[in-house]
Amino acid sequence: RANSKFVMYLTSDMTLSKYSLKNLLDVLMGNLEVPFDFNNQISLIPTKSLSYDPTLKDMDLNDIDNLIFKNEPELKIVCKDLPGSGLGTIPLMSKLMWLKFRGYNEEWIHYGWHEEDITLRVTQKYPWNNLSFLGVHAIDVQEPLSNIDINQIENKHKTPFNLIPNNENWGLGNYKLDKISLDKPLVLGNKKKLKSDKNKINISDFHDQIKSKTNLSNLYKPGRINFDKKTEDWEVYTLLSWFCMNQKCGSFLQIGIKDYQNSIIITEKFPCSSFFIIESWRGKKNNIKPHLLSDTLRRNGYRGHLRFLTGDENTGLKRLHSNLDKNLYFDLSIIQIDLIREKLLENFEYLFNYSSNSSVIILIDNRLSDISKILEHNRNLIKSSQIFLTKSGLVTIIFKNLILDDLDYNKNHHGDLDLGPIPNWMWIIKSNYKRILKSPYNYPIYIYKFLLSIFNKK
Predict the structure, then answer these.
(1) CA 456 distance to own-chain centroid
(2) 147: helix, coil or strand?
(3) Which helix (H) or strand (E) holds 360?
(4) Alpha-carbon gap, residue 312 to 282, rounded angstroms
(5) Is 412's pLDDT higher than 60?
(6) Whole-prediction pTM value?
(7) How far apart, in whole angstroms, are the C-alpha atoms of residue 21 and residue 208?
(8) DSSP 156
(9) Helix, strand, coil shares of the chain as percentages rounded to 5?
(10) Banded pLDDT at 195 (limits 50, 70, 90)
(11) Which residues contact 445 (CB under 8 A, 6 or more apart)?
């Protein structure tokens, strides 16, 4: 029932970047010459798949547009090997053609097949053309793996025989619809708005979550065995696993890269978040380099905006915010204190002020005195935060405006955080034994690595 000359249906989990929309409008308005007649064809707009990320729900339209702009060339086209079928595309036709074929088959109320049905019907009388050569693509946000939980039902994949499946009252034709106009422009939400108390957690809830089966299952996934890691590494992995299961991450900061694992853990749950890595890459005993980390993240599904800041780590945070949008705030930060010790207090103040209103900061240090110095010097700054020290004494986690105070807990309590056995070998065996049994020739290698890690620790 639209009044426009052309009509395009865009489903609720899809979007177009403003650049795709500009190209589309230019050609429809005749500003760009094309070798076909838009009025007498069905134009198919291919869809590209963007990884599911729960943080997308909190992004405003400009954030999503920037995300698409940086990633669109590399995203996979859905069903690109099925030309002419219409599957995985968005149909665009003149208003007269929509009226002639009476839209989608309205007997279908479930998921899928609508676009193929209408394409196969229309192409009995009209040609089709794909608009990808004009730089016009729709972005389809992938569904979470839990879609089964909502009992989603698919329409039967039937090839249409009736070109016009709906009666004359299709599309609410028997209703009188009033024209709607927007007197005021849409106002984007404030993504830095404080979380309400109902979204925060109690300290007791955090302790339950950190030791839950959900967290352990996520942490000890098959294949994620690191025999050469130290206790503090496993403590950080455990905290990151908890964060992924219970929080959202739009922006992630790391100062100092020890290995790939921290980034991969976050990538698996938040593939569209922005990553900022501050590292000099000098004097490294390992072979981690920016291009290798970038390649590893991409292979693990990362689709966000990744930025490396090289040079002196002590000045990295200041350089980052002097050259970027002042509205950049971090939801999660992991800091190797050794790398910023020369300007420790200045850097922590920067870090805390540019952490989002409800965020997590993880500090890794072999000098407990430096952590105490930070906390004492910034007592007023962190007064609304909760602080814990892990059993190794090397990892400190700061919750900024994220945890509610329990009645029996003092504010700013700086106590030991019990993460359970680190690493938990029972969960490692449980999550990997099927994998080992499927490839028994790898079993001696696992045993060798296990024994080697034990002797190395001694």
Answers:
(1) 37
(2) helix
(3) strand 355-364
(4) 10
(5) no
(6) 0.77
(7) 47
(8) P
(9) 40, 20, 40
(10) very low
(11) none
